């Protein structure tokens, strides 16, 4: 599957796209696999705060296969090129609101997130809200819109009242957004389920130090490798293209992350 030129123009212009029902036929096994990851934590999610596992899809071979799925890989290739990098995954039981933020400020290359919400959500029950066009970092709007991260003090507007689009979802819908896009959610339950796949354009050979810094910055827990073992173990030649750049830099990963906390734990953000 490829995104059409109109879908690409929409993404370029607004910084996100919703693909309704794209994984509808698969959502039963995807949800079962999602649930199968969480028992690795000692504590069960009790709704008092967000529980997050990183890397997430990497824990289960079936979830890893999403990286090869022609629909997911097709979206990634359309937005990032045939040799895109897989940049990891997080799985979440969210509790409550997520304030306005960008996931990064990437100028040199595009980073995107593919998000699968596993419950039906609308704007008042925790659907992802986005500010269209806010991914354009250096447009005047892209600069001014930073005020939303302190909306109450800077604009006298509460987070939920910031003008935005709520991306209502049912399980099987796929949301794709640029890491530079401002996003948030409000009114969600204490058990809102979601996981992501992060992907980016391949780094140039002259930018590998930047890639090394990036993967260390995103190392939340002590681990042997940026990727989970199931992701590496089950990779065929096609997937390896999307892992090889990060894989090549992971030789000293265990040493560099040795002071971070260890899974299993109740992961907090
Ligand atoms: O669903 C949410 O509450 C926020 C999701 C989010 O911020 C993210 O995945 O980066």
UniProtKB/TrEMBL annotation:
One of its GO terms (molecular function) is 2-oxoglutarate-dependent dioxygenase activity. It holds the Pfam family PhyH. InterPro entries: Phytyl_CoA_dOase-like. PANTHER family: ECTOINE DIOXYGENASE, PHYTANOYL-COA DIOXYGENASE DOMAIN CONTAINING 1. This is Phytanoyl-CoA dioxygenase. It comes from Paenibacillus albus. The lineage of its organism: Bacteria, Bacillati, Bacillota, Bacilli, Bacillales.
């Amino acid at each position: 599957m490829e995104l059409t030129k109109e879908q690409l123009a929409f993404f370029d212009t607004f910084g996100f796209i919703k693909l309704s029902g794209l994984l509808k036929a698969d959502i039963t096994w995807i949800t079962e696999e999602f649930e199968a990851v969480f028992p690795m934590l000692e504590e069960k999610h009790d709704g008092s705060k967000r529980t997050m596992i990183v890397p997430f899809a990497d824990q289960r071979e079936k979830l890893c296969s999403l990286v090869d799925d022609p629909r997911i890989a097709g979206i990634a290739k359309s937005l990032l090129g045939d040799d895109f990098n897989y940049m990891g995954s997080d799985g979440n039981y969210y509790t409550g609101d997520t304030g306005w933020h960008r996931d990064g400020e990437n100028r040199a290359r595009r980073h995107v997130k593919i998000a699968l919400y596993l419950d039906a959500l609308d704007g008042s029950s925790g659907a992802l809200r986005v500010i269209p066009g806010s991914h354009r970092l250096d447009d005047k709007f892209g600069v001014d819109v930073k005020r939303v991260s302190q909306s109450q003090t800077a604009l006298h507007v509460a987070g939920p009242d910031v003008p935005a689009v709520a991306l209502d979802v049912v399980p099987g819908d796929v949301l794709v957004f640029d890491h530079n896009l401002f996003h948030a959610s409000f009114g969600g339950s204490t058990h809102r389920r979601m996981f992501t796949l992060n992907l980016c354009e391949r780094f140039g050979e002259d930018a590998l130090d930047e890639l090394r810094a990036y993967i260390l910055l995103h190392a939340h827990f002590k681990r042997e490798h940026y990727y989970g073992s199931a992701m590496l173990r089950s990779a065929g030649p096609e997937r390896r293209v999307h892992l090889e750049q990060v894989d090549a830099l992971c030789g000293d990963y265990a040493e560099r992350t040795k002071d971070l906390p260890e899974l299993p734990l109740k992961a907090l953000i």
